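Handout, section B. The chain below has 132 residues.
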Amino acid sequence: SAAWNAILLDFPEKRLKFIQELAKNKKYRLFLLSNTNDLHISWIQNDWGIELYTAFKNCFEQFYLSHELRLRKPNKDIYNFVLEANHLIAEETLFIDDTKENTIAAKSLGIQVWHLIPGNEDVVELFTKNIL
């Protein structure tokens, strides 16, 4: 969708550096769970370039895309799948999403959540906002 692509258009280098640093220090396990499809992924690869896309993807232990799982957020099955497949404990897991319905569904399973508001907040504020 245009909205999804617009969010990704505004992907500042500081955000990538922050995610890369989180991945590098290995204090936290990182997973991506995205409602997307093949067209979105192709668009991102073309827009960002394969090198940047790969650098981003490599930050995550697993890179879950809804069209591959055939489930979409906020369906609770998708969260349970990620938890079970990776032996995660819901109460020790933080889910960050910009869609309220998605964070409500995750929270109902005991997952810690941050409903991030694009334009007002950024994932780079994870520690300064005392989310963790």
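Note. The chain is about 50% helix and 10% strand. Compare this with the example in section A.
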